[in-house]
Structure formats: C-alpha cells, structure tokens
UniProtKB/TrEMBL annotation:
Residue runs in coiled coils: none
Keyword field: Kinase, Transferase
The keyword Kinase belongs to this UniProt entry's keyword annotation: yes
Protein EC: 2.7.1.49
Organism ancestry: Bacteria, Pseudomonadati, Bacteroidota, Cytophagia, Cytophagales
Family annotation (Pfam families): Phos_pyr_kin
Enzyme class: transferase
Source taxon at top rank: Bacteria
UniProt GO BP: thiamine biosynthetic process
Record-level Gene Ontology MF annotations: hydroxymethylpyrimidine kinase activity; phosphomethylpyrimidine kinase activity
Pathway assignment: Cofactor biosynthesis; thiamine diphosphate biosynthesis
SUPFAM superfamilies per the UniProt record, alphabetical: Ribokinase-like
Name used for this protein in its record: hydroxymethylpyrimidine kinase
Amino acid sequence: MTDVEDNSLNPMRPYALTIAGFDPSAGAGVLADVKTLEASGVYGLGACTALTVQNDVRFDRVSWVPLADIQDQIQVLLARFRVDFIKVGLIESLPLLLKLISWLKAQNPAVRIVWDPVLKATAGYEFHAQPDAELLQTICRELALITPNRPEALRLLPAASPEAAAEALAAWCAVLLKGGHADGPEATDLLLLGGERHTLSAPRLPHGEKHGSGCVLSSAVLARLALGDDLATACQSGKAYTAAFLGSNTTLLGYHFISTLL
C-alpha cells in the first residue's frame, strides 16, 4: 500500500523539491532554496548532490554524492509526497544530470524541472567545463526552464553575446537569462519563452551582491510555478522576491522574508 500524501490534504502548501549542493553558510544550495520556498508559501523538500566546504567568500572543496544516493533521497520523498515541481542546482556532471532527469520523468512524467546551471562558485571554484552541445540539447528539451547568468550562458553555448547564447538555448526550452553581471543602473533579466521576449528589470542596488542569489531566483520562480503561476508571471514574481533578498542588508548573506505575493 502506498503512503503518498494527497496535496489536497494540504491545499495552502504545495510541495516543491530542490536537488542541489549543501552549503554550510546556507547562502546557496539546498538550504537557501528551502528558505526561499518556505518564505514563498511552498513546502520545500531537499535532496543533496554534493557536500561543499565553503562560506560566502571562500570555497575549499566539494565531495560529490553518488547518483544512487541522490535517487534514494528523492525516492523516499516521492513515496510520501506528491511533487510536480523540481529544481536542480549543483550536479557532478551533465551526463549524470541527464540520467537524473530521465529517472525523475519516469517517476512522474508530468514533473516540471527548472535547472539552475551552477558552473562556477561565487568564490571562483569552477565545477564544469563547456558541455557537449548535443548532450546539452537533450537535457534542455526535458526542462521547463533554464536560468543561466551571462557568463554561464556563454559557457553553455559560446556565442557573440550572452543574449545570442540564450536565443540558441531558447530553441530547446524556456530561458531566463539573469542580468546581474551586466552594467548599468538596472539589473535586467531576459525571459525567452515560446518565441517571445520579456524583460524583467529592477534597480541595481549599491550593496546588492549576494552569495547564492542565482539559487534564490530559480527557487523563487519554482515556488510560484508550484503555486499555479504561468511561467512568465512566475519569473516576474521571482525577480521581485530576489530584489527584496538582494536589498535586505549590506552583507553577502541576504535575508528571506515572507512574500507579500501570497
């Protein structure tokens, strides 16, 4: 007999799952994702892909969790909770990511997956070199959204500009190109969705740099999807949540607040 909990028993809190690395500072990875999900009105579940030795300014090393152990963490959750929305962050390799996505789709063909392609730590540690284009295409075709920043977009698909790389990625899935690495008085993200371009802008803050901001944005978008928003609305709301997080203090570790969008 299955013990899966029907989400109708908990209508105010849908479940969403983050599959990401463990950051002891809680600024990035699973801990930051779950904080974002909870503050956004979603019950956050988590599975660990890597144990990192880091803080907000230093990255020493990473120990990868084997795929079988990642799957076991997830399987015990799926046996109890209905999960239709999943985010994947730090992962050991893209071939492993494809195996994981294929396995997730076998558990729930309707699951919607957001991938935040963590290729380099804030403190400078590089996780992945340029991926194989054919493998990248296969992965992207299984995603609801990919959320690279500008350097990540160029590493995923070398092009004349981050925008051009995002346009190429958008042939395979929706793309939210994060604009935090650009210059100018506003931080503008670009959502490429079904042939449409949506620009999402917020004032660039004088002390707005935060460890794990990409994790927060992708998790905030995931939360809004779990709450029923369409993708364009979810990205707009996720941008607003992240702007509040970036402006929460002058340190590299931001604060989370209960979303006013609930």
